[in-house]
Design brief:
D-Amino Acid Oxidase, Chain A, domain 2; eleven-stranded mixed sheet; 448 residues; alpha/beta
Amino acid sequence: MQTVPIVTAPELTYHDLDYGVNRDSTPALDSTPALTDVEYTDVCQYDVVIVGGGIVGNVAACALGQAGLKVAIVEAEARSMASDRGQAYSLNLLSVKVFEELGLWQRIRPQVETYRSVQLSDSDYGKVVKFSPQDLGRETIGYVAEHRVLLEALESRLNALPNVDRICPATVIETVKTGDRTIVKLAQNSFQNSAQILSTKLVIAADGSRSALRQAANITTFGWQYWQSCIVAFIQPEHNHNQIAYERFQPDGPFAILPLPNGLCRIVWTAPRAVADEMLTLNPEEFMAELRSRYGDHMGKLTLVGEPSVFPVRLLHSTRYVKPGLALIGDAAHCCHPVGGQGINLGIRDAAALVNVMQNALARDKDFASLSVLKQYERWRMWENLFVLGLTDTLTRLFSNKIWPIVLIRRCSLWILQDISPIRSLVLRHMQGLTGKAPRIVGQYPKV
């Protein structure tokens, strides 16, 4: 993989010459060079251009690159900024299967933690639902991985692929759909009025919940901002976490504890926005005092590692995932509440499903960027994603509620989950991605 450094630009314009329309995502800024004033370098030809070089975009790039397609990754952040992001994810078993099919799991596995139990509880209610590997007939029920670990493994594989280029840091300023190809224009040097042009059959938008490509293509979304924000932090407990993950539903919102390697834990603390903002203004001692009241004392003394951070919580879903020559994956297509840790897993499943559909089209000598082929991906993933978004939204509203009839319903639900094993197994199978249509990335790849 070659890396081409270029500077960023703030705007993206979408032109669809097939339909004779011109759509502007935002008003033009003075700092953006006019198209007629820009001097363009030679056009670089690609089969696929992926905008967004995070976990989900890189999963798609690895799979497509290993399938022999010529791929460009356009990423707005410098590599050092992306790898330094202090995030951790709960990986379900389907995501692990995708990394196995990419030949990356042997590299990732020593650097992640498994959890052999998930304990689900409701505030001060004594009933605790305990999910275990026996519910699935497997050795584990999931893993927790740091962002850095996954990104480094993916980029290591991409670096070994001569047919994959990384253009970073860069921002797309315009896409032009003409015939069966899309021209993607990138800002290269705004001071010298020069730019780089890519030509591709398919653009994959993996550029996050504020996707400029989605907005420029006039793909609408629906959803809402929750009344909550999410506080995340790394904690070093005195006692071992014993590979147990906790999901505690409290009146303010869910509170999760995820086990990490070296005895660390990751907390995901959902609270009303005002409370979350206030938590970040506290000094470390005051913050830890508030945290301990929710964390409990079962792991002994707790030490804060690094700085806590907060991010807003929202539900978002695109009304379309595809247009001719364009496909949305991951947060560009949908966002859900962090309860249950489903966000990254939905994105990885999107990437694998899209690649699966494209590979099937190639095997049948069909145009993988045609709307009829891309619609197969949309039909596959849209309803599965909507189900998970609805489930996480229902859980959040059901458990962040003090109305007594609702409290009674949810506590009866916990009793059913704990005491009726087939239902518990069904719920766990769904959360682990073991229900529905599973994507398969065709081909056997070398291990790294």
